[in-house]
Amino acid sequence: MTDAFGESLIAYYCRDYFCGERTRYIVRRDDGLCESQNVGVYFDEYPAWQDFEKEIIDYTQGRVLDLGAGAGRHTLYLQLKSHEVHAVDISEGALLVMKKRGVKNLWAMDLRKLEFPENHFDSVLMLFNNFGLAGGLKETRDLLEVLYKISTKKGRIIATTRDPYQTEKPEHLVYHERNRKAGRPPGLIRIRIEYQEKIGDWFDLLMVSPCELKELLIGTGWMIAEGAPGPNGMYGVVLEKRWGG
Fold first, then answer.
1. CA separation (Å) from 44 to 47, 97, 150, 236?
2. What is the pLDDT of residue 161?
3. Do residues 94 and 7 lie in contact, with contact meaning Cβ atoms separated by under 8 Å?
4. pLDDT for res 142
5. pTM score
6. What mean pLDDT do residues 137-163 have?
7. Whole-number Å distance between alpha carbons of 231 and 185
8. Angle between helices 4-11 and 92-101 (to 10 degrees)
9. What average pLDDT does range 169-194 have in this prediction?
10. Largest CB tally within 10 Å, which of 95, 137, 179, 243?
């Protein structure tokens, strides 16, 4: 696997962190659509976060698991607030950057293959669209079941995602219809990260509307406890255990 995302984080940290946001990577969708993304957002400190992200992270409690931690911006913020935070990422470059930035507990791990004790975490972070990182509906439900086991009786999932239907762009509407015809959820996109000559592997990212999220949670033991609307269809949610663990 080529770690294009990790390479972009390293480049930003080594070259641009103190002299401006120049490093960018490409997100390529499997229909050919490309978007250039600013790597600097993964290093943003709390004042630069969007309001809904600030609102949702305030629900964090106790020992924390940060899934897809990237450059560690959420982990570092919570460490300063005296939380014990365990940062998980599959990217070696991300783990290297987090180590250099002072993240204390690092785990090189695929979030679909988590290996932690039961009843261990009070909060699980799935921020910056990371709720959908497991892939499709089944994979996401499987992950939610694992998170139910490794979280405490009053454990929470604090997540952000995007309502895919909050768009009028033809390229997205066509993609939704393509997914429907293929028997896939409309908001399930297949993408890869590209940075300079580095090309990452394809992976699925699920985006769901609030109604789809409620349906997805049926039978997982989780329910929506709080919500925080954001711009352009983005929103945050706090999930709590329906049956108290």
1. 8, 14, 29, 18
2. 98
3. no
4. 98
5. 0.95
6. 98
7. 22
8. 30
9. 98
10. 95
